[in-house]
Amino acid sequence: MLHPTQFQVNEAWIAFQLNDAPICTDADGDFNCIALMDAASCFILTSALVPANEPEPSKMEVRRLLKQARAHKQEMPKTLFVSTKQPANNLALEAKRQKVIVVRVPEDQLLLFIGEAREGFKERFG
After folding, report:
1. Region class of 29: left (phi > 0), else alpha (psi between -120 and 50), else beta
2. Mean pLDDT across the stretch 30-47?
3. Which of 27, 72, 102, 112 has its CA 20 to 30 A from that of 15?
4. How many domains does the structure of the chain reveal?
């Protein structure tokens, strides 16, 4: 089982969906919120709203997410963990292009890291 104490800050990031149900807007439709979190600190580095009718962030959105996350330490992590439930082909391809090892893991192994963030998001945005 993965645990934050296994990592140094910026050694590994986690990509995950913050919301359980799509975020509904009248003007622009429904969205999912995709986040990148540092595995050691559980600090959310960045997030992006992705149209709910899209299976995953576009290549451009993925590049922007990784660029914004990298801005915190001016470097990429060694590893990016992604839930096996999360569609993330574009993210995996771009991360690998930037020499980051992508590891797909069952979502239950990530809950220790992402559970609190999801609960906070749910309380705030319902």
Report:
1. left
2. 97
3. 27
4. 1
Q: Tell the burial category of 102 from Cβ atoms under 10 Å away from its Cβ (0-12, 13-18, 19+).
A: middle
Cβ within 8 Å of residue 26, ≥6 positions away: none
Dig out the tokens for 43 from the structure. 């600090």
Three-point CA angle 30, 124, 92, nearest 5°: 55
Residue 106: CATH number of its domain:
3.30.420.10
Rounded CA separation 4/110 (Å): 10
Q: What confidence score (pLDDT) does residue 57 get?
A: 94
DSSP character for 22? P
Give residue-wise pLDDT tens across range 54-89: 989 999 999 999 999 999 999 999 999 999 999 999
Q: Do residues 53 and 22 lie in contact, with contact meaning Cβ atoms separated by under 8 Å?
A: no
Cβ neighbour number for residue 15 with a 10 Å cutoff: 25
Range of the domain at 63: 4-125
**3-state class of 17 per DSSP?**
strand
